[in-house]
Amino acid sequence: MTANTSYFPTQPGSRFLANASGPSPTLSGAGAPSLSRLPAANQSVDDAPVMNGNGPHPLRNTWVYWFRQQRSPGNKIVSYEDGIRRISSFDTVESFWTLWTHLSPPSGLQPTTDYLLFHSGIERPVWEDPLNITGGKWIIRLKKGVSDRIWEDLVLAIIGEQFDTDPTSQYPEICGCTISVRQHEDIISLWNRIDSEPKTNRIRDTIRRVLNLTPATVMEYKSNNDSMQDKSSFRNSAVDRTPAS
Asked: Which stretches of sequence are listed as region Disordered (predicted)?
């Protein structure tokens, strides 16, 4: 998508955070997004500077934003694949914020609606995609009213490469993330490429850090293979019992 470069330098923060009323119960000290959390290509996460100037400032990877609605306008339940719609892609800080500020926050979506953010190498955000099939996802269930900030922080952490330690890899370990808006809860999921305990444990710890989750926050993990077997994204997921540090 074409970035509106005149918009970004004067943007004080996301509409999500501007609309938030008080701190989230699951976050402490959440503030406006920092540009230093979005490193440009070929920069390490640790030494990425706060970016100035008129840009554009390239991200290390290209990402695609998707939308899914389980029910069609006629209120008929549609299949997962049929309900997915691509919104746009972005590969710079500017094009990300141009897209982001035109999206409704999760709190503005109807139940049974999902947002999906995935790496551009993933053709479709489904379990069976070659980059997804050997992985799985971490799941966090949220009470209503707190998802806007947490979703934004998760997206910023992903496109800012907060989860990856090998910038030479062709694809990041993180495939993408989703938020599923439901009647009585919202569910965020972080998808990764390889279902191995060392990798998933590191990702779990990073999620807790970047989202500033309380020790009481319950996290669940489910492999995509298990999801394909039982045809469910969230049913029969394994609750993580590791004490939060």
From this structure: 1-37, 222-245
